[in-house]
Structure formats: structure tokens, C-alpha cells
Amino acid sequence: MKFIKKLDTEPQVLFDWKEQDKMYQRKNAKWKRFRNPYKEDFHKFLIDEQKSICCYCEQKIIIDQSHLEHLLAQNLDTYSEYLFEYSNLLCSCQRKLEKGEPRHCGNSKGSQILPITPLQSNCETKFTYTEDGYIDGMNDDAKITIEILQLHIDNLNNLRANAIEPFLIDPITFEEITEEERKQFVQDYLQIKNGSLNEFHTIIKYLFG
Question: Where are the domains of the chain?
Fold first, then answer.
């Protein structure tokens, strides 16, 4: 989980939609009223804000493979005032689930409350990772967060392991890479390129950065 730094004020596209939607002005807008082009433009904004990685698992995301995620659930009346709050909106993976695909991240969270969120500046320090892709929590809150988001499922463990492997073994020679090669590889991998981060950025930084 990587820290997501939000702007101090909401983006213009969200402000513009609120200004023109009469039901929002009457404090009676439902989520389904948030339509394109505003919704799609806001979706793109969040992807850019998150440097093209899922707010929870850090897989690469694009607009067709991600969804707008309410940190505090949209289907609970308790949090209805946060329905269109920029600070409550993120972008998560798994827009559409393939048959048999396990739920994780926003699809797993549902209406549950996360003890640790990507909006907490120290969230990256709450989790540990192993070179075979396993994740663990530094405390009970982190362990609960992993469970809610299902970040420990085999599918994600394998994806993390695949991302880690090139930092251990040369994919051509299948021999262990040198420390100097690894250092250069890590420096390059952790750079923002064209506004995007490589997936599993925090894991690579934790293990090799």
C-alpha cells in the first residue's frame, strides 16, 4: 500500500459537476447521477493522481480495468455526506471480475472500515514483504487491513513474486544478479516515468531500495 497525497482542494472536474447538478445542489444526489463526461474525466484524474497503480495492491490500472472506490462506503447512510467528497474517493483494480477470480482490494472491502488507508502518510511502514511475494502486517491494524482487502491471497502473492524475481535472478542467464546490477535496476524501477509508477513500487522499495 502506497501513500496517496491528495490535493488541498477538489479537482476542477468534480467541482464543475457539483455546480451543474441540481440534485446535488439540493443535497439529494445519488451516485448514479455522477455521469460522463465528468465521471470518466474524474476517473482519469484519480488514476493520474495514483501514478497508475491501484490504491491498495499497487497493480497497474487503466480506466477500463479499474473502478472508483469509496474509502467510506457509498451504500451506508452513515457516510452519505462523503459520497461525493474528493478525499473519500480513490481508484481500485478489478472493475470486472473474471469467472473464478478471487475478490480483493475494493471488491473485497465492501462496506468494511479499514484501520489503515492509503491516505495515511505512514501507511507504507505498516507492512512487511518477503522475496517470495508474501505480505504481513507490523501490527494488528495492518493484519486486519490485509484480511479485509485480501492482500494475502495466492494470486497477489504470485504477482508480487513475479515482480520481485528480476531483482534476484537474471531472466536470460537464470543466474543471481550482482549487487551493483540490482542497485541500478532498483533505481530505474522506482522512478516515475511519464507520470506513472511501476506496479508493486512499495514492495520493491521495501526489499531492495
Answer: 12-208
